[in-house]
Write a structure and sequence with these properties.
The chain is mostly helical. The protein is built from three helices and two strands, in the order ααββα.
Length: 96
């Protein structure tokens, strides 16, 4: 039964946050510097997720992969694995 919850994948992208610098070592240093110089703002990184969560015209839309307020084709799709994960979630939550 429907429960009023819609789930979509929304990556924030390469953003100016400390997350990249926390990797440590040279890689963390380079990634942190790159994020500060070339990353988008955290506000811009969060924009699509906020849009999906609040736009009335998108109420109930879920299951997609969105970037920059556009639904995109996801190259990481495996229908059998998705069904197995869904069944596992149902069993773990007692919904099934």
């Amino acid at each position: 039964p429907a429960r009023g919850v819609a789930v979509s994948a929304v990556p924030p992208g390469f953003t100016r946050t400390e997350a990249f610098a926390k990797g440590g070592g040279v890689q963390g240093l380079v990634a942190g510097l790159g994020a500060r110089l070339f990353g988008k703002s955290p506000e811009r990184g969060a924009d699509t997720a906020l849009w999906l969560a609040t736009a009335p015209e998108l109420a109930g839309i879920g299951g997609g992969y969105f970037e920059d307020r556009c639904e995109r084709a996801c190259e990481h799709t495996d229908e059998a694995a998705e069904e197995a994960l869904y069944a596992l979630c149902e069993r773990m939550t007692g919904v099934a």
